[in-house]
Amino acid sequence: MTTAASLTLADAVLPRGRTQRDALLVLGFGALLAASSQISIPLPGTPVPLTLQTLAVLLAGMVLGSRRGALAVLAWLGAGVLGLPVLATGAFTGGYLVGFVAAAFLVGLLAERRWDRRPATTVAALVLGSIVIYAFGAAWLSLFVGAKAAIVQGVLPFLGGDAIKIAAAATALPLAWSRLGRAGAR
To answer: What is the DSSP string of 53-113?
Structure first.
């Protein structure tokens, strides 16, 4: 049974209780991740492309919650393991991908605690999720290029784009909750 504290946006729109529905949500967000990976822009000076993956990962956690959000990321990674063309670079890039699972779980946990209802707390949750992604990604990248270069190549070029993604999500999520509240959703 879902408690008010663990109610996610997906639960508010589609009440819980059906395993098939949860599986479709997980697979649907896995497909969203696959689509977001196809928008991949190489950036000069970094081996990591600019994608919409981080936005999709953070939305998976915020909309689905901790477990289903992390499962959606794992489903997407599983498709990559099977050789499907779902990853931005076509290959596993280590730390960022592990960080995606952890970030989806963390922001999902925060969403279950209503951090997705107000812009300020939504921004805080998404920033924390981004920090997790950067920490895992930069740690892995540092094994190949060193710690300073990992920050310069694997974090700094992406801060502006991630700020825009966070602003968009931090506007959309509380707005969705507000609309649901006006519509009489539980």
So the answer is: HHHHHHHHHHHH-HHHHHHHHHHHHHHHHTT-S-SSSSS--THHHHHHHHHHHHHHHHHHT
